[in-house]
Design brief:
Number of helices: 3
Number of strands: 19
Helix content: under 10%
Strand content: 25-35%
Distance between the termini: 10 Å
Radius of gyration: 19 Å
Length: 300
């Protein structure tokens, strides 16, 4: 067996160029903010066709938009917040990840750690784009993304005047909320989110999983990853045309991408290991995602 080693020092781009703003109107684009992790953030929300578009709203772990956002309609529970189903501590890259399901490829929901990195590394300025209120985040490399203050939906119909009136009484009447893929450790009925309001940003905000909230995807095709679970415990090996990933929980989804984000292989673990058919070449660098963990590795 030939072990794959993590490469922490190389900072490669997917195509040799570094997109700091949208190059055209063919959205979405992966924007390079110059973050230490190498993660690239999408220029627009899931369901949106422009950066200022609010896009679609999703309950945490659901992959389809709907009219009603409450516990009765939440498909990952039995009608109350006390009966939430266990989807895992982090759903990034799984069947419950709406960014991965809707956009495919290497696009995923950001973990709480990636949102924390975004806030800590970027400046945040309240602004307007095409008459839409939002916040402009500027990364250390000069790249920028605009996040509209799209608010969230809870209780009743997304089109009802009653629910719109209730939203106006919320603590942050003009704000942007964006799901993280990370469940709150102490409260299984809640998940982490990014909160943006008037140029202020917070990464340690939690909402009930039944709420309808926007999603801004990320792509982990380059750089060293950031994840809520340490990647060091995961082991990756190559043997002929197969790749084995070990130290996993049973049923963990595993995907392998090249540096452009193209999916090379996917499957799930049986017991603590997953063996995937992947015709990799010597010295080829790939990204391995197992649940919420990500490793950038090179074949030796």
């Amino acid at each position: 067996m030939k072990q794959l080693f993590i490469v922490l020092t190389m900072m490669l781009t997917a195509s040799g160029t570094r997109a700091q703003t949208c190059p055209d109107d063919n959205h979405p684009h992966a924007i390079d903010l110059g973050l230490p992790s190498g993660a690239k953030w999408a220029c627009c929300n899931v369901g949106a066709t422009t950066p200022e578009g609010h896009g679609s709203y999703y309950a945490w772990g659901e992959t389809e938009e709907k009219e009603i956002y409450d516990w009765a309609s939440y498909i990952h529970g039995d009608g109350t917040m006390e009966t939430c189903h266990n989807l895992g501590q982090d759903i990034s890259g799984t069947e419950y990840d709406v960014a991965h399901v809707q956009w495919g490829g290497a696009w995923v929901m950001p973990t709480q750690d990636l949102i924390k990195e975004l806030i800590n590394e970027c400046s945040c300025t309240c602004t307007r784009r095409n008459d839409v209120n939002g916040d402009l985040l500027t990364g250390p490399g000069g790249g920028t993304i605009f996040l509209p203050e799209a608010d969230f939906w809870r209780n009743g119909s997304a089109n009802s005047a009653a629910d719109a009136s209730e939203r106006e009484s919320d603590q942050f009447p003009s704000a942007g909320y964006y799901w993280a893929s990370t469940q709150r450790a102490s409260v299984s009925s809640q998940a982490s989110s990014l909160l943006l309001s008037y140029g202020n940003a917070s990464w340690d905000t939690y909402f009930y999983r039944s709420f309808g909230i926007s999603v801004r995807p990320v792509i982990m095709g380059v750089g060293t990853s950031v994840s809520s679970t340490p990647s060091a415990a995961m082991r990756v090996y190559r043997h002929g045309g197969y790749l084995t990933v070990s130290s996993l929980e049973d049923g963990t989804p595993v995907s392998i991408f090249d540096l452009s984000g193209r999916l090379l292989a996917e499957g799930s673990s049986h017991g603590s290991t997953a063996t995937l058919s992947a015709n990799l070449q010597a010295d080829q660098m790939v990204v391995v995602r197992a649940g919420g963990r990500v490793m950038k590795v090179v074949v030796r």
